[in-house]
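Thread: Newbie trying to understand structure tokens

Hi all, I'm a second-year student working on a class project, and my supervisor (Dr. K.) asked me to get a predicted structure for one chain before our next meeting. I've only ever worked with sequences, so writing a 3D structure as a token string is new to me. If someone could post the tokens and maybe explain what I'm looking at, I'd be very grateful. Here's the chain:
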Amino acid sequence: MSRKKNALFVGILTLLTLIVLYPTVTDFSTHNPGWNGFSRLKEELKAQVIVESFTTTLYSIVKPEETAIITIAYRQYTADELEALRNYLLQGGMLIIMDDYGEGNIILEYLKVPIAIANNAPLYDPFDNFKNKRFPRAKIVGKEEYIVLNHASAIMISEHGIENVKILALSSPFAYLDTNNNEIWDKGEPKGPLPVAVLIKYGKGTLIVISDPSIAINSMIDSESNLEFMRSIVYGRKIFLDQTHIPKSLHEQIKDIFMYITDKYVLNPIILVGVLLVLFTLISRKLIR
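---
Reply by user tm_fold:
Sure, no problem. This is what the structure looks like when written as tokens:
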């Protein structure tokens, strides 16, 4: 092998090793161990991550009633994905939609349920909060426990369907939705208590909507009862954590592909990285001679 080819090979190995070992900074990514990542959530719930073929994964689940899918609704869902989600719920699955910007409403509209996530309207609480009004606290219904939200929204329930919706967590009476984004309460803007987590039965399944995915990021998961709340709603089920609907950098996409391949072929990524490092060392030594 020529010196140029050797150098190219070493460069590729080096790049691949850095991609695998270097953490990402993508919001809600399971590869991200930083403050805004989901690495802790994956670990705590022992979740299986969906990085490819979302629709195929849904249809491949043999016992939906024993599983739960958590999806972060930051990217559009295709018609095939929406139908797959509907079918999954009808067969007994649990779907947990976490969203604070209203992107998840496309799912709720498709399912024709009487709930919607307030679109681009932040939930503020100037009195009952953690740090400041952008971190409102919400009481878990039926318990003397609270979750802490982080730049959240709220869930609106239609009057005609309110009897079919179970509220899981409510903001304090001091909270309000800032629909015009001027950071103060104005007459006509919804005031608390406002739902931030709800449950509705759908076919044989269960649909849960949470108006803030940030309750489960690494820096928030240990706040108040955030982790216990997530554990309680998925208790006893196998968890699938959807990573296909969050915006991703090229680094994140390559990392996903690498992890998908190692998982599919039952390879340990750490061992594979070790092999790459050994190859890197051997070839480097050969080039130095």
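A couple of things are worth pointing out once you decode it. The two ends are 14 Å apart (CA to CA). Residues 269-288 form the longest helix (20 residues). Feel free to ask follow-ups in this thread.
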